[in-house]
Structure formats: C-alpha cells, structure tokens
C-alpha cells in the first residue's frame, strides 16, 4: 500500500492549474485572513493500492482550520486512476467527499473480508465514512474526477 507522496513537477502543476481553471476557481476566502489558492500540491502513485496517479491540492495550512486534517481537491485525471481501499478508523477520523466534476465509482466495505458495495458518483454527490469501515474511489470517465475532500478528527 503506497502512502508516499511526492511533489508534482512544475509542468504537472501547470497542467493541474489549467485543468482546474476550466472547471472551478480554487480560491479560499478565509475569514479575517488573506485570500489564497493551493497551499501544496501532492502526487500519489498507486494511492492506497489503487491505480495510476492521484493529485491532492491542499487548500489549507495546518493552523487554518480547527479539528481538520485535510481540506483538499483530489484529482483523478483519467479512467485509469483510482484511490484504493483504506480506513480512517485507525486515525479516529471522518472523511467527506463532495464530487465537483466528472463521474466515478465509490466503493465501501465494513472490513477487509466483507462484500464491496458500489455506488455511482456524479457532480454534487456526497459520501462519508468514519470508524473502521473502508472506502475507495475510481474515475470511470474520460473527464477528470475532481472531489473536494474534508477529513476531520473525531471527538475524543
């Protein structure tokens, strides 16, 4: 299971920026602070045992949001790209996906051995997972699948 992230090349970053500009304006208007766009670009190859490349465009610094670990756009550029099954239970997190663009499949299961449930993803759909359940996502179209991901820490 690949958890390693790298920084995309400058040409990849330019491509991601131009791709996003056609679909959304990735800007943050943070109360009482300066406005900004992407804070960090991450590249994940075969993310959590998935296929292809997944890009994460981190929209916040760690200190900008309370109780959040991730506020990022996840981009799966082609139908060859997926994020494999993973859980947030070990980290006591809840994760929410908002589909911004494209089409895909959302997969979930209760544990490694349980049956997989599959749901179609389209613009505007929301998914959520918490506890020890597992989830994965796959792009199923020729268009990029763009998801806004918010990961919060569960209360202790």
Describe this structure as you would to a colleague.
There is one protein chain. This protein has 156 residues and is mostly beta strands. It has one helix spanning 10-23; strands at 40-45, 53-58, 68-76, 82-87, 93-101, 104-109, 117-121, 126-130, 134-139, 145-153. It is globular and about 45 Å long. The two termini are 28 Å apart. The model has no long low-confidence stretch (mean pLDDT 90).
Structural class: mainly beta
* Rg from alpha-carbon coordinates: 15 Å
Q: Report on the biggest sheet.
A: 6 strands, antiparallel
Head-to-tail CA distance between termini: 28 Å
Major sheet: order of its strands?
A: 1-2-3-10-5-8
Mean pLDDT: 90
What is the N-to-C succession of helices and strands?
HEEEEEEEEEE
Question: In which range does the helix fraction lie?
Answer: under 10%
> Which stretches are low in confidence, meaning pLDDT under 50 for 5 or more residues running?
none
Query: Total strand count, please?
Result: 10
Q: Which outline best applies?
A: globular
Strand content: 35-45%
Number of H- or I-type helical stretches: 1
What's the structural blueprint in terms of helices and strands?
Blueprint: H1 10-23, E1 40-45, E2 53-58, E3 68-76, E4 82-87, E5 93-101, E6 104-109, E7 117-121, E8 126-130, E9 134-139, E10 145-153
Antiparallel strand pairs: 1-2, 2-3, 3-10, 4-9, 5-8, 5-10, 6-7, 6-9
């Amino acid at each position: 299971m690949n958890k390693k992230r790298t920084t995309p090349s400058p040409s990849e970053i330019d491509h991601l920026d131009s791709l996003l500009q056609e679909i959304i304006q990735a800007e943050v208007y943070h109360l009482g602070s300066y406005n900004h766009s992407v804070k960090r670009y991450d590249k994940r190859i075969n993310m959590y045992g998935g296929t292809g490349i997944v890009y994460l465009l981190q929209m916040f610094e760690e200190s900008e949001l309370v109780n959040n670990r991730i506020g990022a756009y996840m981009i799966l550029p082609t139908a060859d790209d997926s994020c494999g099954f993973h859980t947030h239970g070990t980290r006591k997190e809840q994760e929410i996906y908002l589909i911004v663009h494209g089409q895909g499949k959302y997969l979930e299961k209760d544990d490694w051995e349980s049956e997989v449930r599959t749901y179609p993803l389209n613009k505007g759909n929301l998914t959520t997972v918490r506890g020890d359940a597992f989830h994965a996502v796959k792009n199923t179209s020729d268009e990029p699948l763009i998801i806004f991901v918010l990961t919060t820490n569960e209360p202790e």
